[in-house]
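Thread: "does anyone have the structure for this chain?"

Original post by V.I.:
We have the sequence but no experimental structure in hand. Need at least a predicted one for the grant figures.
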Amino acid sequence: MWSCWLVPAFCWLVHLCVAQSLRPQIASPQLATNNPTFTTIALEKPFCVFDGSLSPGKSYEVYLYAMMDSMSMISSAVTDNSSKPLDSTFQEVNGGQLGPYKAAVLNVPDCASPPKLADIRNVKKASDVLKQYLFRVGDDVSCLYDPNFLGVCNPPLASDTTYRFKYILVDETLGIMKDETLWSDPIKTNSVKKSSTIDTWPGRRSGGMIVITSILSVLIFLLLAGLFASVFFAITGSEDSATTETRHISQTVQQVAPRPQASSDRADQ
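Reply from O.Q.:
Generated one for you, tokens below.
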């Protein structure tokens, strides 16, 4: 009798421990080449993470929480004392600086039928596969300023800032958390370069490079000048030759042509 319920209980504990030992992962560079950006971070969705906590006949959702990895954090809790998920918004926690905020509500990924990553090579299927497999935090640029927006706001993240993320499994009927992952490892958004650090030419080139560039410029100028000079002399030389030849032909014709006056004298005789 003990074995009848010990085995299912053990399996349930194993699944629970597995879920609670996992962390949200940043998307692979093969799937998201420009990640993180200045204001977004692409994460892998929790495929096969919560399967051990799903009960047949019940509906579930996955909530994604985000927070800054900051020393000013008041609390990292995402539920109240009754296990109900917090509905903290981006504005209420100052963009995640004071605590976690709900960044997204997702369907539970289908572990039995995950997207085929090989389809990414297919241009027609790539976009759909990435939407199924990834979620980009900070991708909604308008929800903060839209007075009619009623969904979960996922506004842009702060640049050069470190964040952590957590997935939780929520029973839709009871409205309570059934399972959760650990907080992710710190993930930092890219930083915007200051104008003073941008490499400009020639202010931040070495003296040697400037000298070499100047010499090359002079050589190119001399080469072009020589080319133009040779073309000019070739054209003017051909014109002089044509003029000389024309004069020579004219003189020859004048010498060979008969004199009309001599012919008339012979006729008189």
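V.I.: this helps a lot. Residues 207-256 form the longest helix (50 residues).
O.Q.: and The domain at 16-191 is CATH 2.60.40.10 (Immunoglobulin-like).
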